[in-house]
Amino acid sequence: MPLLARWRPLRTLPARRGREALPGVYELADEGKRLIYIGQSTRDAPNRIRQHLESSKCMKEHIRFWRYTYSRIPKAEEASEIEKYRYKHGDLPRFNRIKPTRRDGQSRYLERTTEQ
Fold it and tell me: Is 93 left (phi over 0), alpha (psi -120 to 50) or beta?
């Protein structure tokens, strides 16, 4: 299930925010608005998108649209969105390479109780 946000052209990415946090989950799409990446940032999602554009020539050539939703638990929501995508399409989005570990209360409890 895609994020409940509309696709925006890449040129509308907000300016760097400085100290204001903007954590959340984001999706990146190609010219045909086909989802090619799902990501998250615990600090500032627009700046994280900029980092992708600066570090990956291949992603920069393909990304044309972005959308974002605020999240207090972006890592868990990113894992959930990727899992939904995999269930629907049978694979990860084109530029996602690693499947994040699903995070929930039970798995965190098991991690903490077996660490000892």
Answer: beta
Distance CA 51, CA 110 (A): 34
* Residue 111, pLDDT above cutoff 60: no
Residue that is written with structure tokens 């044309």 in the block: 64
Distance of alpha carbon 65 from alpha carbon 55, whole angstroms:
17
The DSSP bridge pattern shows strands 35-41 and 24-29 to be: antiparallel
- Domains of the chain and any CATH numbers: 8-114 (3.40.1440.10)
Full-model pTM: 0.82
At residue 71, φ and ψ (nearest 5 deg) are -150, 135
For 6, counting Cβ atoms within 10 Å of its Cβ (0-12 exposed, 13-18 middle, 19+ buried), the class is: exposed
